[in-house]
């Protein structure tokens, strides 16, 4: 699996950095590991009574909401193998993780909605990449965020609108967690209003889940430290939980790894793909083999098992801590033990990752392929692209007419392959190309003869007929 090689390569690069004359320890690791790098035993200087010290500090600071230690608190303090999640959720005075909670997504129901009421409004927008300003512009343009409300206290104004965000909220920007908080807050409000805001996995969510952070901005990493890492340090009364991640962005890794901090309340409710009315949405693209029912191998090609199976595979993987137990007390005797543990953590995540989230550059994966979107703003160069997408749409559902995808930046939202492929990533993040946000709008059965009305919404308030955004042959749209 391509991700396995990526994870191994990344970790070996990290190991090389540890052996160099300018190690990463001084910038990213706790004092104990810095001492080990200098040749001193990382634990010899401060063996301590963990339970009593942690309890004393936490009681003095008033970190627990009750006057007595709950059973869950005892479990966390006494068991170094326990998950870190309680330190940011149910066992502390502020349930910080609740800000990222998405409404429950029912596999087979919420991800497959072919039967919609006539006139149902659907909107979609592409890659965000940690740019909170671009995200706000997308949401206002889509008509689902009250423009008078703030990012900290957003207000859903979309009514029963169904919105699909096609993945890649992470990487390249400085406000990734802020983006997820905004989206999650609106998703909860949309659910209450009878609408929906569905979040899809992109390849950058997959990379982060596998412990691969080569596309993360320094500012984004600092956001994770301020928002996640510092809170765990404070609530846990120690920073030694960081050792198990060997300096590879512990706050980020702990948040997005399978079984991690955000796995239950947010990531399990995200989707690989979904069918809404006559449209199938995905981050990068779908082949017929991704959607065919059943699980088998056909002439060497993997058969994934439909939209519902794709989403079920992703959910089963993301909620399970495949690496086994944590080592929150940082009980390692040598630097080599630390590195080995972190390597195993990354490798097992990559090896167990389902194919619908894996792959890598050039792979025919739902989160990586570019068969229908490259080159940008022009007809795909793959001569078989039309044949492939026709077959995929036929497998997606009885009356599915189009596929909407992000992943490959375009100058404008456009459609190719006889309007079967809609490419909606406009590179809006300043970390990509600072493109102008646009939103795709579909009114289900809103036109003559019950045809869908497909339009592009611009930040200037215009509604552009979808036919004006069709590309032909190899001409490039500007």
Q: Could you describe the 3D structure shown?
A:
Helix content is 33%, strand content 11%. It is an alpha/beta fold and 478 residues long. Helix 9 (218-236) crosses helix 10 (250-256). The longest helix has 19 residues, at 218-236.
Q: How do the helices and strands line up, and which of them pair or pack?
A:
Elements lengths: L1 H18 L5 H4 L2 H7 L12 H12 L9 H8 L33 E2 L7 E5 L6 H10 L20 E4 L10 H18 L2 E4 L3 H7 L8 H19 L13 H7 L16 E4 L2 E4 L5 H4 L4 E3 L2 E3 L2 H13 L16 H18 L32 H12 L5 E4 L8 E3 L4 E3 L14 E6 L9 E6 L4 E3 L13
Keywords:
478 residues, alpha/beta, 6-stranded mixed β-sheet
Number of strands: 14
Largest sheet: 6 strands, mixed
Radius of gyration over C-alpha positions, nearest whole angstrom:
23 Å
Largest sheet: spatial strand order: 1-5-6-9-11-10
Helix content: 25-40%
Number of helices: 14
The mean pLDDT is: 84
Q: What's the overall geometry?
A: globular
Low-confidence stretches: 14-69
Tell me the span between the first and last alpha carbons: 38 Å
Question: Could you give the order of the helices and strands?
Answer: HHHHHEEHEHEHHHEEHEEHHHEEEEEE
User: Which structural class is indicated by helix and strand composition?
Assistant: alpha/beta
Strand content: 5-15%
């Amino acid at each position: 699996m391509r991700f396995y090689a990526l994870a191994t390569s990344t970790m070996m690069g990290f190991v090389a950095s540890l052996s160099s004359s300018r190690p990463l320890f001084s910038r990213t690791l706790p004092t104990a590991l810095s001492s080990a790098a200098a040749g001193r035993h990382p634990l010899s200087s401060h063996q301590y009574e963990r339970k009593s010290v942690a309890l004393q500090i936490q009681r003095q600071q008033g970190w627990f909401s009750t006057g007595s230690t709950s059973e869950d608190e005892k479990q966390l303090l006494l068991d170094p193998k326990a998950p870190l999640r309680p330190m940011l959720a149910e066992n502390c005075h502020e349930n910080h993780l609740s800000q990222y909670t998405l409404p429950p997504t029912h596999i087979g129901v919420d991800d497959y909605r072919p039967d919609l009421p006539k006139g149902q409004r659907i909107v979609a927008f592409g890659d965000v990449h940690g740019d909170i300003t671009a995200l706000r512009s997308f949401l206002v343009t889509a008509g689902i965020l009250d423009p008078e409300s703030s990012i900290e206290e957003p207000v859903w104004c979309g009514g029963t609108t169904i919105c699909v965000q096609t993945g890649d909220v992470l990487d390249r920007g400085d406000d990734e967690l802020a983006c997820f908080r905004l989206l999650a807050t609106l998703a909860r409000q949309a659910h209450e209003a009878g609408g929906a805001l569905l979040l899809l996995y992109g390849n950058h969510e997959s990379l982060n889940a596998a412990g691969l952070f080569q596309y993360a901005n320094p500012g984004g990493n600092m956001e994770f430290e301020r928002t996640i890492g510092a809170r765990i340090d404070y609530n846990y009364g120690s920073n030694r939980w960081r050792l198990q991640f060997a300096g590879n962005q512990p706050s980020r890794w702990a948040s997005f790894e399978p079984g991690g901090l955000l796995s239950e309340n947010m990531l399990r409710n995200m989707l690989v793909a979904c069918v809404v009315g006559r449209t199938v949405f995905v981050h990068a693209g779908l082949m017929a083999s991704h959607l065919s029912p059943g699980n088998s191998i056909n002439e060497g090609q993997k058969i994934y098992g439909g939209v519902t199976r794709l989403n079920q595979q992703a959910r089963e993987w993301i909620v399970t801590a495949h690496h086994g137990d944590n080592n929150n007390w940082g009980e390692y005797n040598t630097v080599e033990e630390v590195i080995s543990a972190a390597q195993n953590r990354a490798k097992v995540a990559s090896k167990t990752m389902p194919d619908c989230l894996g792959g890598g550059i050039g792979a025919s994966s739902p989160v990586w392929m570019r068969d229908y979107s490259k080159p940008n703003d022009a007809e795909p160069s793959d001569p078989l692209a039309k044949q492939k997408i026709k077959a995929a749409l036929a497998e997606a559902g009885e009356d599915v007419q189009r596929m909407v995808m992000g992943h490959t930046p375009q100058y404008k939202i456009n459609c190719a392959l006889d309007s079967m492929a809609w490419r909606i990533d406009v590179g809006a993040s300043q970390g990509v190309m600072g493109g102008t946000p646009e939103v795709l709008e579909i009114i289900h059965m809103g036109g003559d003869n019950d045809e869908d009305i497909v339009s592009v919404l611009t930040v200037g308030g215009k509604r552009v007929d979808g036919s004006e955004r069709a590309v032909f042959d190899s001409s490039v749209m500007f």
